[in-house]
Amino acid sequence: MMPVHQTSSPTLLFANPAPHLLSQLKQLGFNCLVADNLKQLFTLSHSLPSPQIVILDPASCPTHSLVPLKTLAQKNPLIFISSKQDTATRLFAAQAGGSAFLTQPLTLVRLMVQIEALSQRSDPLYRVLVLYNNSKSQMLIENTLKKSGMIVNSFNNPLELNEQLTQTQPELILLEHALSFCPSSTLAKVIRQHDLFAEIPIVYFSTQPKAHIHPLQEEGDDFLLLPAARSLLTKTVIARIKRWRKLCNHLTQDSLTGLLNHGRILDLLAQEVARAYRHQTPLSFAMIDIDHFKAINDFFGHPTGDKVIQKLAQLLKQTLRKTDSIGRYGGEEFAIIFPQTAASVIYPKLEAIRLKAPHCHLGGKVTLSIGLAELGKDTPTFDKLIKAADCALYQAKNKGRNQTIFWQNKRIPLSQP
Ligand code: GH3
Ligand code: MG
Ligand code: MG
User: Fold this and answer.
1) Atom of ligand 1 nearest to the CA of 309
2) How many angstroms separate the CA atoms of 381 and 374, rounded?
3) pLDDT at 150
4) Whose CA is closest to 111, among 218, 239, 39, 12?
5) How close is the Cα of 272 to the center of ligand 2, in Å?
6) Which domains does the chain have, with CATH numbers?
7) Of 237, 194, 248, which Cα lies nearest the Cα of 219?
8) Which of 109, 256, 296, 297 to mutate to test the pocket of ligand 1 (most atoms within 8 A of CB)?
9) Which of 210, 250, 273, 378 is the most exposed place for a label (fewest CB within 10 A)?
């Protein structure tokens, strides 16, 4: 048993780990504890505050360990890493209450994505949008879902659809089947015309006992007859949003780092710009570029370059707030959105990150150039904000690299909004 690194990451408790993954996770600053066998794992787990994330191989779990594993899984997420894929092994992991089943050969990123998903103490609240015709059903839905802690927005004018989608960013839409304005399936088609909502779960509801609906033939996913299906309402919404979030994660994650990919970070920036105007709150945006990265690849090889990118990604995740959005903008370039925060607050944080830049194997510390911009009079739009951060980054490079520049040069030509 060997305690390593004390950082804010979750504790990872290993039994018979894959040695290469263990050493890479340690290098990235995860707290890793290793048990030599299952008995030691249980003892160690009892002595630690829950939750820890327990990582183990089903091949080292005898059948009689099922019951204690189930108990362990009640408080601590279990990740099984297996070199066997057969159904009996998978069944054992599922019966033991495993939260994830990963198969070898396993990349570090696949494991990290699971660790991060499981270490979120609480999921963000579910966001539901309701388009109704009948205010009684709207009240019933709002009351039921709000009791479960969801964010519910309702409207009854279909012409407000675009505005509602943009402002509320729903993860599921409840659509009353008999709308007076137009067939609800036509409206579902309009929802699906939006790239961001093309696959969003749409659940029809009706209060007409004779309603005869085939949701799958009408651009929808499900149908609930209210109030009879009231008890099903919350369960249906939660299950569908959970699955939707998984799908979104797959589509929006960068495969090397687990950060948001280029497309997603830009979508989010557009949303945050709109939100900043709506609520009159500040918004900052930064771009970080690793200096002379080509030389790292050239001297130490591409895999070492990849590790540097992963280490920096991990540093950003560990240092920044959950409400900040971090993306891999391209190659060795990162983009970060800081909602509701002025650049004056962000500047010192970025400087702290720059000073903590990761080491590159034998090559010493890498250095970072950082451009920072804030939404404002000279940077009033999404494009101009990006252009300003990019200009600041360019200035940082020109001034000798290894520095953070806040974009303030009003002489940089920017076209009118
Ligand atoms: P500067 O200080 O001006 O930013 O110089 P640089 O060498 O960092 O920038 P340049 O744009 O010349 O080179 C970036 C290099 O990053 C080139 C490309 O091969 C490498 N790169 C891009 N994506 C990846 C990746 O996923 N992994 C690795 N290892 N290298 C990558
Ligand atoms: Mg670079
Ligand atoms: Mg670059």
Assistant:
1) 27
2) 10
3) 94
4) 12
5) 27
6) 11-119 (3.40.50.2300), 127-251 (3.40.50.2300), 262-406 (3.30.70.270)
7) 194
8) 297
9) 210
- Residues around ion ligand 3, judged by CB within 5 A, are 289, 333
For the four alpha carbons of 82, 86, 88 and 91, in that order, the dihedral sign comes to positive
Helix, strand, or coil (residue 91): helix
pLDDT given at position 25: 85
Nearest residue (by CA) to ligand 1, atom 19, is 294
Q: What is the pLDDT of residue 343?
A: 95
User: In whole angstroms, what is the distance from residue 78 CA to residue 113 CA?
Assistant: 14
Using omega within 30 degrees of 0 as the cis cutoff, is the peptide bond preceding 105 cis? yes
Sheet harboring 53-56: ordered strands across? Answer: 31-35, 11-15, 53-56, 78-82, 100-103
Three-class DSSP category at 170: coil
Query: Relative to the alpha carbon of 298, which ligand is closest?
Result: 1
β-pair partners for 172:
128
Identity of the residue numbered 72:
L
Interval 106-143: pLDDT, tens: 888 888 888 888 876 566 789 999 999 988 999 999 99
Nearest protein CA to atom 26 of ligand 1, as residue: 331
State which residues of the chain have pLDDT below 70: 1-9, 17, 120-123, 361, 363, 409-417
What is the distance, to the nearest Å, from the Cα of residue 261 to the centroid of all Cα atoms in its chain? 11
Q: Which residue has the tokens 């540097």?
A: 308
Confidence (pTM): 0.75
The tokens describing 96, both together, are: 């033991």
Which tokens is 8 given?
Answer: 């804010």
Which residues, including other chains, have CB under 8 Å from residue 166's CB and lie 6 or more apart?
A: 271, 274
